[in-house]
Amino acid sequence: MNPFSLCKKIQPTGIHAIGGVAVASMVFGSSMFLYQTAKSGNAKAELKHIEYSQSVLKLEEQADSSTALHAQIQDIQSRVESLPMLDRASSYNQRSAMIASVAESSGIRIDTLQPEEQRTEGRVSWIPIVCTGEGGVDSLMSWIETLEKEWPDIVVQSLSIDTGSADGLVRLGVVFRWYVLAPQAG
Asked: Is 89-180 in CATH node 2.40.70.10?
């Protein structure tokens, strides 16, 4: 049998039919390929969208955290700025004059106002100031309140009162703690 004899038997319409089936197969295959590619592209786009959304959430959380930290820093800064500035121990004469002046204006008579040796614990230094005097109870309270209000670096360490006086006055003994710059502080 001659191979060309087979070609003679196929009619032109049969060739068209075979060609049509081949073209249809190629179109269907290409369509499936494009469909799968598009489907895979959509999945990639969805994955990118999820990653983007997560990144946005992380940035928002960081922004909220940053805002909170900024607020905390401002709070601490304002509290530090409201702290009293400490004086040097060498300014004792000025401080003792202020203590005596406030005592006099409050109605307290000061008998002694004597500093003791400066003490330091860690980074905190203070000078105990021993004070004795006499005055009314209301005058004593006014004096101490004024000192603590005007000079928050002075606090009462101890207070003793003797009410044995017939004239209504009390004898007082006060030890103040005057906080000063530590020796190594600038």
From this structure: no
